[in-house]
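User: Here's a structure from my thesis project, written as structure tokens. My advisor, Dr. K., wants to see whether a designed sequence matches the one we expressed. Can you design one independently, without my sequence as a hint?
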């Protein structure tokens, strides 16, 4: 499922989308809040620039909306349908989930966004 070369591997691990050899982020832990979005400029293995153009990751805000909706729906289903909580408690669980997972959602959104534009290249070592 998370084989090297798959988009899912790069998205879930935050690794370089082209070579998948190293993390794009300077700190792997998204909960170090001052470093949540700090990225390397380029990949030290294949030389891929992560910020393709100025303000490239603004598009990740659109992805973030969808990812946030998915987390919110999951929180509602778990709290209301599986645990039998009333709507007020389910609403509180949605808010707590979105706040608690905000750093993860931001990174996932960036990972998805960059993987839309940069694809894995198994022959990256052979290219100058």
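Assistant: Designed independently from the structure alone:
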């Amino acid at each position: 499922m998370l084989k090297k070369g798959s988009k899912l591997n790069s998205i879930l691990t935050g690794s370089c989308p082209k070579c998948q050899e190293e993390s794009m982020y300077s700190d792997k832990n998204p909960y170090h809040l001052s470093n949540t979005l700090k990225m390397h400029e380029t990949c030290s293995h294949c030389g891929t620039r992560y910020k393709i153009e100025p303000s490239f990751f603004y598009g990740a805000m659109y992805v973030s909306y969808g990812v946030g909706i998915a987390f919110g729906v999951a929180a509602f289903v778990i709290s209301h349908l599986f645990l039998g909580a009333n709507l007020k408690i389910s609403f509180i669980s949605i808010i707590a989930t979105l706040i608690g997972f905000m750093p993860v959602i931001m990174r996932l959104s960036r990972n998805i966004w960059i993987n839309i534009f940069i694809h894995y290249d198994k022959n990256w070592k052979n290219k100058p």
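When you compare it with your expressed construct, this may help: The helical segments are 7-13, 60-82, 87-100, 102-117.
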